[in-house]
């Protein structure tokens, strides 16, 4: 029927006079939903009878090709138009600029347009400037702006916004700020561009100042500032702006709800998430795929998997219909992968596997993006068995092991303490890119292979691959973990001076850690003030730990005061200061710190260790008696402790936080969670099997010594991942070299 209709259409066109034929074709294109078969048929007909000489008709057909993203036919038609005007050039340039085509295509067309004597209008200029921004091509963008000034081209605010966006996207703030100040007319987009630029640069103060000066704030403005602050790590500040948006009376869009739900999930604010969910239902956004995906992620992150499951099951009929027909949108896939990742994050690994298998059945084929999401969740949770099964699924289904998927696998195996598997993946990629190199460097760093990480970095540079900010973070962490102060300082300056990378929060924290671990406490303090990072919690926490490590109590007290000014409710600061006083037998000072903490209602985060056995996770706390095998665990622990003492181990009772007798102190530290997890692993696995333990806090000195001796006596490899790094214990020694 379609073919007959097209034949009929062609016959009818061929039998009418030329001008009548043009009017009929134009109305046909206007009234019909444009499709490629119809377009190519008309295109061929017009080419044969010379109708392409009618520019209005040719331009209109060209614009229809562009709207349908048929760029190949658009280029063919453009080449066949004998006489082109400015509109013809602008349509094609704008079309290529909107697609993911190479910017070079747009630049080439723009140069050819000028060579042919066609003066670019504001739409063409705006499209080319957009490509300059996207490709970070500041020289060409500047040249276009200079041409505009020389030729007296003063466009509207849309064109001026394109110029503004160019300078700011290319990080030329001096020109950008000057141009913004010189604009005769600014619309809300102009202000949003400035606000967004400061946020991308991490300058929350300037972005907020710009936002407050905004004459009129629309929903896009609020979305920009809230999302930007959240991306920069200022979640609490973003939350304040969300409340201000409600008071301001701006109506939420679907994007606002999605951002707000992600914010609630990042801060683990379940009650806020529930309120937002009610609003979503009230204002009719429950059918929006991206809002639904954000709802699922929020409930998953807040530990309410039951609610997340209900949101997924309550999907609208069109969502279910798409599933039944095998059609899957990006948001649907994200929702499913969020569910799987949520189960992993909440320790429900068996449910995670079931959900992953159900996902495969329901969606027919799981794309590589979803698999990468699941792999990343396994990496963050340190659950290697689940990660291995997911990896096996990709191999079975023929997913290509490219650099990006390979980097997620390297990250997962590295964060699970299996560096050999990470190396195997790395060696399978023929042409590793910077992402893959960076994953391997970071993997070596967290597993105590600092010198190997630096060797890898130097090898990457010899291959001509340019490092990015994440690469340098891996290198700095490697230097910090093995105490390479001189090398770390050198790489930090190379990053800034040779590669023009501005240090971020994590770079600065790593440098403070590097100085502090090396005993350079004053240098670490000076670094904080010289780099203007005294407002960051992470740098003070790092310095406080170094004070504890080197028993510098006076400096530790001063650092804790600075830290409590930034985060007055942080329990870790009180605990570390108390531990520092207790380890130096300053019991009165330790008691005062604990008392102050108690009066303010601040609770200590309990130490927790967990170990995976098959598909089940077993968690332990200090002195935990809730496990079904607790009698066997404590009995074996007492026996093993006695044997370890015979080969040189002794409990470090200085670590006890209270002023108690030595015998009682031994009991308190003898039942730390990692020791209980270790004993459980020993009595439930075969001899010679590696034991992997996860811990939510930094491992203490006594447990570190205990596990070292245990690895020697039992002949076992024991891998402990604490909050900062991996410790690989084997034959009585640790990969950290007792430097952590």
Structure description:
This is DYW domain-containing protein. PPR repeats lie at residues 85-120, 187-221, 332-362, 433-467, 570-604. Residues 648-740 form the DYW domain. InterPro entries: DYW_dom, E_motif, PPR_At4g14850-like_plant, PPR_rpt, TPR-like_helical_dom_sf. Pfam families: DYW_deaminase, E_motif, PPR, PPR_2. It is a single chain. With 740 residues, the protein is mainly alpha-helical. Among the domains are: 434-599, Tetratricopeptide repeat domain (Serine Threonine Protein Phosphatase 5, Tetratricopeptide repeat); 611-734, no CATH class. It is 68% helix and 4% strand. It is built from 40 helices and 6 strands. The chain has a 6-stranded mixed β-sheet with strand order 2-1-3-4-5-6, with helices on one face. The termini are far apart. Mean pLDDT is 81; it is low at 1-36, 317-327 and 657-667.
CATH hierarchy class name of the domain at 434-599? Mainly Alpha
Largest sheet: 6 strands, mixed
Helix content: 55-70%
Mean pLDDT: 81
Biggest β-sheet: strands ordered side by side in the sheet: 2-1-3-4-5-6
- Helix/strand structural class: mainly alpha
Assigned CATH architecture of the domain at 434-599: Alpha Horseshoe
What is the secondary structure topology, with strand pairs?
Blueprint: H1 2-14, H2 18-31, H3 36-49, H4 55-67, H5 71-80, H6 86-98, H7 103-115, H8 122-134, H9 138-150, H10 157-169, H11 173-182, H12 188-200, H13 204-212, H14 219-231, H15 235-248, H16 254-266, H17 270-282, H18 289-301, H19 305-313, H20 317-324, H21 330-345, H22 349-363, H23 368-381, H24 384-396, H25 403-415, H26 419-428, H27 434-446, H28 450-462, H29 469-482, H30 485-497, H31 505-517, H32 521-530, H33 537-549, H34 553-566, H35 571-583, H36 587-599, E1 608-613, E2 616-621, H37 630-646, H38 662-670, H39 673-684, E3 691-695, H40 701-714, E4 718-721, E5 726-730, E6 733-734
Parallel strand pairs: 3-4
Antiparallel strand pairs: 1-2, 1-3, 4-5, 5-6
């Amino acid at each position: 029927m379609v073919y007959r209709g097209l034949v009929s259409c062609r016959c009818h066109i061929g039998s009418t006079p030329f001008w009548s034929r043009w009017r009929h074709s134009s109305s046909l294109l206007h009234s019909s939903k444009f499709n490629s078969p119809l377009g190519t048929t008309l295109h061929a007909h017009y080419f044969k009878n010379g109708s392409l000489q009618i520019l209005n008709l040719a331009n209109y057909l060209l614009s229809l090709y562009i709207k349908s993203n048929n760029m190949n036919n658009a280029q063919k038609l453009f080449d066949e138009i004998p006489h082109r005007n400015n509109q013809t050039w602008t349509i094609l340039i704008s079309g290529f600029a909107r697609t993911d085509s190479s910017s070079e295509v747009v630049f080439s067309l723009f140069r050819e347009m000028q060579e042919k004597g066609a003066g670019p209008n504001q739409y063409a200029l705006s499209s080319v400037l957009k490509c300059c921004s996207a490709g970070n091509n500041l020289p060409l963008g500047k040249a276009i702006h200079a041409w505009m000034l020389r030729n007296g081209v003063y466009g509207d605010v849309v064109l001026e916004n394109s110029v503004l966006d160019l300078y700011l996207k290319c990080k030329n703030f001096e020109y950008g700020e000057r141009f913004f100040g010189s604009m005769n007319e600014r619309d809300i987009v102009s202000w949003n561009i400035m606000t967004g630029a400061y946020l991308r640069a991490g300058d929350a103060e300037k972005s907020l100042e710009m936002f407050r000066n905004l004459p009129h704030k629309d929903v896009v403005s609020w979305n920009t500032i809230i999302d930007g602050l959240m991306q920069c790590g200022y979640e609490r500040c973003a939350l304040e702006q969300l409340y201000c948006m409600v008071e301001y009376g701006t109506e939420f869009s679907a994007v606002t709800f999605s951002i707000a739900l992600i914010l609630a999930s990042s801060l683990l604010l379940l009650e806020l998430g529930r309120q937002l969910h009610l609003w979503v239902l009230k204002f009719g956004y429950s059918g929006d795929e991206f809002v639904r995906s954000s709802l699922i992620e929020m409930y998953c992150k807040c530990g309410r998997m039951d609610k997340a499951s209900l949101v997924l099951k309550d999907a609208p009929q069109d969502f279910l219909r798409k599933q039944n027909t095998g059609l899957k949108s990006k948001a649907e896939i994200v929702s499913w992968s969020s569910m799987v990742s949520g189960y992993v994050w909440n320790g429900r690994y068996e449910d995670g596997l079931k959900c992953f298998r159900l996902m495969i059945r329901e969606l027919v084929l799981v794309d590589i993006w979803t698999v990468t999401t699941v792999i990343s969740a396994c990496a963050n949770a340190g659950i290697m068995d689940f990660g291995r099964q997911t990896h096996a699924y990709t191999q079975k289904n023929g997913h290509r092991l490219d650099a990006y998927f390979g980097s997620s696998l390297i990250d997962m195996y590295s964060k699970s303490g299996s560096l050999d598997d990470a190396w195997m993946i790395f060696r399978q990629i023929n042409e590793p890119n910077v992402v893959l190199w960076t994953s391997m460097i970071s993997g070596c760093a967290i597993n105590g292979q600092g010198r190997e990480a630096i060797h890898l970095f130097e090898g990457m540079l010899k291959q001509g691959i340019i490092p990015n900010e994440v690469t340098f973070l891996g290198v700095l962490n490697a230097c910090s973990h093995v105490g390479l102060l001189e090398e770390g300082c050198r790489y930090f300056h190379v990053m800034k001076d040779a590669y023009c990378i501005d240090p971020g929060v994590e770079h600065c924290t790593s440098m403070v850690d590097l100085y502090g671990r090396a005993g350079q406490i004053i240098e670490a303090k000076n670094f904080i003030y010289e780099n203007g990072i005294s407002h960051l919690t992470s740098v003070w926490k790092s310095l406080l730990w170094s004070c504890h490590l080197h028993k510098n109590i006076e400096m530790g007290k001063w650092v804790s005061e600075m830290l409590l000014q930034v985060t007055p409710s942080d329990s870790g600061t009180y605990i570390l200061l108390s531990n520092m006083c207790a380890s130096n037998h300053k019991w009165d000072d330790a008691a005062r710190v604990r008392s102050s903490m108690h009066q303010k209602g601040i609770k200590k985060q309990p130490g927790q260790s967990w170990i995976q056995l098959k598909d089940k996770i077993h968690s332990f706390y200090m002195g935990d008696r809730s496990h079904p095998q607790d009698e066997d665990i404590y009995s074996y622990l007492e026996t093993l402790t006695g044997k370890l003492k015979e080969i040189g181990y002794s409990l470090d009772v200085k670590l006890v936080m209270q002023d108690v007798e030595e015998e009682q102190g031994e009991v308190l530290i003898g039942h730390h969670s990692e020791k209980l997890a270790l004993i459980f692993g020993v009595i439930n696995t075969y001899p010679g099997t590696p034991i992997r333990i996860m811990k939510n806090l930094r491992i203490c000195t006594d447990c570190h010594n205990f596990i070292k001796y245990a690895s020697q006596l039992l002949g076992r490899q024991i891998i402990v991942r604490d909050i900062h790094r991996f410790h690989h214990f084997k034959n009585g020694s640790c990969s950290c070299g007792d430097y952590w």
